[in-house]
Amino acid sequence: MLTLDQINFYHDNGYLVVEDVISPAILQHALQAIDEVVSGENSQGSFELEPKDKQTIRRIWSPTKKHPAFWQIATDKDLLEKIADLIGKNITFHYSKLNMKGPKVGSVVEWHQDFSYYPHTNSDLLTVLIALDPMDAENGGLKVIPKSHKLGLSEHYIDGYFRGKLDDIEEDEVVHLQVPAGGAIFLHCLTKHASDRNTSNRSRRTFLPAYRAADAFPIYFGPHASHNEPGAKTVLGQASKFARVEKGIYSLPFAEREFGSIYDIQEGSHLNKRLDEMKLSGYAVD
Fold first, then answer.
1. What is the reported pTM?
2. Per-residue pLDDT band at 55 (split at 50, 70, 90)
3. Quick one: which of 3, 4, 13, 5 has its CA closest to 186?
4. What average pLDDT does range 2-26 have in this prediction?
5. Exposure of 164 by Cβ count < 10 A (0-12 exposed, 13-18 middle, 19+ buried)?
6. Which of 157, 169, 173, 283 has its CA 20 to 30 A from that of 146?
7. Where does residue 211 rank: exposed (0-12), middle (13-18), buried (19+ CB within 10 A)?
8. Directed axis angle between helix 4-13 and helix 77-87, to 10°?
């Protein structure tokens, strides 16, 4: 369980770094599992490649569905008890992903709030970023704006459409987080965060299981959000028959065209992909 100081730090700052969340043995098992997923017979469609380096994977989709090692980590009793200290004893597993920043590559993730992509009836949602490699500023580690979660949901629109990124960041408020392998960041869904390109010769692989309080229910069911719901599952405590609703007005993520990942929407590549698909289908595209 977390200490009172750790719990207070999370609620005050919107994030918390904890070392030794997984053991060295489980860490090695997870790294081996990545290799097995990538080299598996059914790996096609399981991951997304770096656009400038087609040999480097930047994301593996839903690793908890692709290898039991990741579901084991995501449902670990000690991890769930830590999460319960932060969002309550009834917890729903939301989704998972593996972000892979290869040496000298690693796509930039622009400033954003996770809640903008999947607004819920309340904001008791968090993501656990488990460092499978040491994470620091040089290899594209996470950077955050402390206390930004207290300011609510900011505008993520550009030219009238959701683009999943922010441009009003005060750089003097930025904190670069360092996490040893096996440690983790517990990140509030409204905390503003980003990560730079990996400029080092080291990998930065991070497993991200996401959770929500059982009484937090989605209020947006667009294609990039609704596909997570079939995999949502109660992992601690009990499911809720009631939705807890926070007062407020939430901007919904209506994009110009459908997108598959945060990289697509932030880079604008979702627009080009759709044009390419239309051309292949025989449509006349200007």
1. 0.92
2. confident
3. 13
4. 98
5. buried
6. 157
7. buried
8. 60
